[in-house]
Structures are given as C-alpha cells and as structure tokens.
Amino acid sequence: MASLAEIRARLAAAESNRGGQSTGGDNQIYPHWNMEEGHSAVVRFLPDSNNKNTFFWVERAMIKLPFAGIKGEMESKQTQVQVPCVEMWGDACPILAEVRTWFKDKNLEDMGRRYWKKRSYIMQGFVRENPLTDDKAPENPIRRFIIGPQIFQIIKASLMDPDLEELPTDLQRGLDFRITKTSKGGYADYSTSKWARKESALSEAEQAAIEHYGLFDLASFLPKRPTDVELKVMKEMFEASVDGQPFDAERWGQYFRPAGMVALTGSQPAATSDAEDTPVARPAVAAKPAVSQFDEDDGPAAAAAPVVKPATTQKAEDILAMIRARQNKN
C-alpha cells in the first residue's frame, strides 16, 4: 500500500505534467447518483488490492458516440455507443486527435464537447450510511464506486492538505467520506461533499469482510485495451456518428454495440453499452464485470445525460462542412 507522501508526490507530479501540456445487474456498484436532492451517503474508501497502484482509485476515460438509430430498423430511435479513450494507456487517441482541432474554431466547440472523453474514477469501500431505501446490498459488503470529476476534485484536494496526517483508507485511522447531493442550475451538484473530521477504525464486521472476500483489483474493471483493428473501427464509427449516420451492426456489431442490442449470430462477443454497463472493446477471453455508465457529476440531476441528437438540421450540416474543410486543409 502506498503511503500518503507517495500519493501526494504522484498527484503533484500529475498536476505539473497537466499544466505543462455511471448499475445494471451488478449491485456491487453503489449508485449514489440515485439519491434524492438533499440526501447524503457516508462511505469508507479502501485501498486497491494491487500494490503497484499508488492510489486507491483507477481512472477511466470513455467517449460517447451518438447515432441516428440503428441501420435497417424501421422505428429505430437515437442510440449511443461508448468506446474507451486510449489515452488511458498513454496512447494517441485517433478520435481526440480530430476533436482537439475543433476547439480552434468557436463554431465547432459544442461539437467538440459532445465527443470529448468523459472521465470517472473507480474506487471501492463500505457504505456506512445509505439513504437509498431500494438499494439491494450484495452479499459482499465491499462496494465499488464510480466517482465523477466534481467529487474527485474534493477528494484530491483534501489529500494534498498538509493537515491530513494519515491515509483516509487506513483501516484503523482512516476517514469516512460524506457524499451529499444537491442541485445547481438543474444539474446534480456534489460540491458540499466532504471528509469526516474524526478518524475511525473499521468495525469487526468490516474487517472480517475484507478477510473473507478480499479487496478488488480496480484495474480489472477498466475496459480492455483496444487492438489496432478496434481502433480503426472506433475511428470509423466516430466519423459515421459525426455524419449523422445510423449504427451499422453488420460492420461494427462484433466489436461494439449500443444498449440492448443482441450479438450477431456467429460474431465474436461485443461489448454492450447498456444503460448501466460499461461498453468496452471486444474481450480477448471473457467479458469484464459491469461498470456503471454514470460517470459524470455534471450530468442532469434526474438521471444519466440524454443522448445528444446527431446532426440532421441545416445548421448541423454547416458544422459538418466546416469539419470536412478543416480535415482537407490538414
């Protein structure tokens, strides 16, 4: 387990480098976003079982690709597919390479935000106070948490506070974290979330749960790193999405598919993007455990952000023309 000093050093280094340059069928995930406004949940974060991970979280980055329905379906509704952003592994992302150029043109900024990567952070721990009356606690009380950027910044800032003497994940002298949901401008707001002031030890039951079930290796819940073929498919899907085309299951369904779509007969298993699953690249052996799609604290307070309608209006066609003109110049 990394020390507090090591975590602070890594966070400071990451910040320096930066300056220089969302549960379906898996109730192990605690859906704090389902809390009603004004309610709070108290959680206790735990370390990663992977000793090579300095932090008690792993970062996930996904890109949402909206499509104008599914090709061949008469009454197909707008749909969405999520793909992993390969910047998670330090690789150059073919989608963001294109999208970054859009921010140089004010007319393309909104389009750029639509296709920008969405960050979230996977953590684990106990739920000590639960306001969700319909939450079905799993047999293993060690839950996973999908933390959005807003809450993460609070966690990160506190870790850099010199007055913090012990790791919040310490089993004997750790701190609880209170996730509080309010709203601001019609959107969910978690800015009043905070750490407890007093340290506390895990209960005997909590320590017994760790002994019995063990801690999760958080990296196992990240998407599979896409192959070269899958990267080409992702780029092709991105271009089709921007052009307002429907999702073509025959071309892409064996690699990625939208929510609720059944795998094509004879095709290799593809990652789904069910409302509460993590859409990932086609697994090499078996599918990874599900991870909630709710990965943004800045989404609408009611639920996950609605799928953005693909370009169909004259204004959208003008935007697409500008994008193509920019591509031709490059």
Brief descriptors of the model:
330 residues; Replication Fork Single-Stranded DNA Binding Protein; 7-stranded antiparallel beta sheet; two-stranded antiparallel sheet; 8 helices
Written account of the structure:
It is a single chain. This protein is α+β, with helices and mostly antiparallel strands. The chain has a single domain (4-329), classed as Replication Fork Single-Stranded Dna Binding Protein (Replication Fork Single-Stranded DNA Binding Protein), CATH 3.90.198.10. The protein has helices at residues 4-20, 94-102, 109-114, 149-159, 204-213, 228-242, 249-252, 314-329, and strands at 40-45, 58-67, 79-84, 118-129, 143-147, 177-180, 182-184, 187-189, 194-195. Strands 1, 2, 3, 4, 5, 6 and 9 form a 7-stranded antiparallel sheet that branches. A hairpin with a 2-residue loop joins strand 7 and strand 8. The longest helix has 17 residues, at 4-20. Residues 18-25, 265-269, 271-295 and 297-314 have low confidence and may be disordered.
Query: What's the CATH superfamily, by name?
Result: Replication Fork Single-Stranded Dna Binding Protein
Which series of helices and strands comes N to C?
HEEEHHEEHEEEEHHHH
Please report the distance between the alpha carbons of the first and last residues. Answer: 47 Å
Oligomer kind = single chain
Summarize the structure.
The protein has one domain: Replication Fork Single-Stranded Dna Binding Protein (Replication Fork Single-Stranded DNA Binding Protein). Strand 7 and strand 8 form a beta hairpin.
